[in-house]
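Following up on my earlier thread - several people asked me to post the actual chain instead of describing it. Fair enough. Here it is, all 195 residues.
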Amino acid sequence: EGIVQTPASTFLKSFDFYCIGLILFFYLGVENCINGWFVTYLQEIGVMSEAFATNLVSVTWFVIMIGRLTTGYLSTKFSKKTLILINCIGSTFAFFLLISTKSIVLITIAIVALGFFLAGIYPTSIANASFLIKGSASGMALLLAISALGGIITPQVIGWIADSLGIVGAISFLIINVALMVVCATINYRRKVIE
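Reply from S.P.:
Thanks for posting it. Predicted structure:
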């Protein structure tokens, strides 16, 4: 009571709403694959033990917390659209470094950087969408559903590809996700809608 909800027709017709939804779709796909497949990937390329790989993924969760706090602070200095774009570009560079090297030092740096940059994408994108959904429960539900689909579909696709090409080839498929994250973040950044 007392909360004005945006009519569904408003945000359902908004290009910006779907653009933010796609950022979240591709982001959650990458994040869930890191959680589900990266220990296997790091062992498969033969650069580290299962224990080290597992610990590295655990460290990534700590870095994600630091990344979210940093993004929270920077959100007072920069626009949401700018932060989303920076985080998506940073995630992409970190991901490319991760899959292009077998150096344990560079892989460690890449995973830490990937966790740091991925950290701010979800909360900042939700905040960026708030001006479109304006308290609409159905708007938020749809946005979360779009992002959840990415988190469900992408690991399944990676699993199917891994069955055919192996985990190294399957992880390379995530290049599509990180590239499309940057494309959507760039479109979102260039749109003239007021936050």
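The domain at 32-188 is CATH 1.20.1250.20 (Growth Hormone; Chain: A;). That should answer part of your original question.
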